[in-house]
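Researcher: I'm preparing a figure for a lab meeting and need a structural model of a single chain. I don't have an experimental structure, so a prediction will have to do for now. The sequence is pasted below. Please return the structure as tokens so I can convert it later.
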Amino acid sequence: MLKILHYPDSFLRQKSVSVEVFDEDLAHFLDEMNVTMLANNGVGLAAVQVGRAIAALLVNIPDDKGEQSSEHLLEIINPKIIEKSGQILWNEGCLSVPDFYEDIQRYNTIVLSYQNRKGEKKQLEAEGYLAVAIQHEMDHLEGILFVDRLPILKRKKFEKLLKKQQRCSA
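Model: Understood. Here is the structure written out token by token.
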């Protein structure tokens, strides 16, 4: 299993580079990312969160029973949002920022172009939870964490909570 980096690790601020080679190494890495994401009860994971700054991310939205099946796993490589509309406020969390949740404004609907693990070009229209999860993970590819999108007072609340957690665990 891969190690998930936690805020304030500076590697999380890396901008990811495009994936150029779609080979067995990439496929193995995506499989390891999936195992790591599921073992940590995540619905999304970007490669930079596990120490590799490449434009690759996973999203797997649970079904009505809370189950995550392999049929719903999205492996998204070199994503680009080509259309966006509407607004939605969503209570987000992050595997790299454990135990902190806050409402974040996102686009409600997006159209995404990307490549799969074989390098094939794909397009996807997503809305609601799926659109939010994709945007959250795409932020990671730019070195942005969801806490960066907080208004200043909520950001200060987060920083205060983080310092308290760090003192308690020291």
